[in-house]
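Progress narrative, work stream C.
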Amino acid sequence: AGAAADADVAGSPYAIVGTGVTGTGLGNYVVSVENGALTVDPRAIAVRVNDATKRFGETLSFDGTEFTAPDLLFEDRLDRIAIASEGAAAEASIAGSPYAITGSAPEGTGLGNYAFTFVDGALTVEPLVANDVPPPPPFGGFDLPEPADTITLDLPGGAIAFDEAAPTLVVAGGDEGAVGEARDTLRVVETVATRLEIAAQACGDSTAEISQYLACLSDALDDFAAELDDISTRLPPEMANVAQIVRTARQQVDAARTRAEGRLASAATDAERTQIRDDALAEAQAAIATASTEIRKAIALVRADDPELVSLRRQTIETVAAAVDTVGVELSRVTEL
């Protein structure tokens, strides 16, 4: 009964029953057949908690659905998980950012059939910027002298000016050149990241053969690293080794493919071949997860006087890490298929 695909873990171990003994000279023997035991192990499922961003001073609440996971089998369903982060509190400082967003306590249907692992997300606390400051109340009580007065407050990222003739807060000065360049760089990185995401999905859609699939992913990662090298002088200084991190992941994916090819050459059963494919995909997933973690470490190293520049640099790093995460999600999808 446990041989069926939908045999659940709760009913394990199942009896493996043998009957109808055949052979030669069996009349010389008293044959008894003892049952074997079929154990159904839980299926490994990786649940990635989604990244999040909030402003300093805000309280962030989670509803338990901020996660990404492959679909469960048959009627089984993962509805929500417990999500928490020290960075969710209003007083969580920018200096401690990014904070880990942890997942636990899965809720749903048929979850006893799965062994869940949780990959932390990252909560980035962004600084308040000048435009977040409410304008001062309308001036009243007596007429202002002529010409109209202007009040200016110097800040590290520029200056806030209140002009009586045009009563709005205006941010002026600051290193607009660096901010503008960082904004342009983010747009370029978003384009490069999208190309990796499209390439990773195309690999899974084009082939079901493990060696070809991993070779396709390797090529996509290599192209991604090359494009990051091409724009290396424009990237934030904290991303100096990002292309090498991607190449290391690519080398590990290649190594998993090579090992799988060698083992498949001597595999004798479908079960062996399935296990070899699963092992290769798991190795590739681990390499991608490590690369994503290493890239995100740079977020905590970002330093600049201008809060907007800090935010743009962190977004650039997060965009690259999220693109690498997409490769991991595609690996999970292919594993399920």
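Work stream C, second folded protein:
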Amino acid sequence: MESRIAISVSENRITVALSGEFDPLAVKETVAELLRHPDYRANMDALYDLRGLYLGAISTEQLQTLSFEIFDPSWDGTKFAMVTDDDDVYGLSRVYTAVASESGDQQRAVFRSIEAAVAWLDS
């Protein structure tokens, strides 16, 4: 799995693009890289572009474990938007939003278009 991180301080937004086959370990490494980024601030909203991502074999239990392993309490009060055009990734992302909502006070939503996700983040 490949990842690209972009941070816009002026928009108070992180954009992470993930592509290739979903890999929970690579997701953890991407989050760790993000937290070390010199422009990263804990109160930034995040846009996850998953349009280039496809699923391998992952269970709901693995997804739940991942959501708790990557959680950071400093994210409370932030928004996370995920964008995908793949039905399987969309469904798994919706499961993730439900599971992750148990770990803190963030808002999460899944979208089919970047425009809808950005509009939600800006609202």
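DSSP finds four helices and five strands in the chain. No further action is required on this item.
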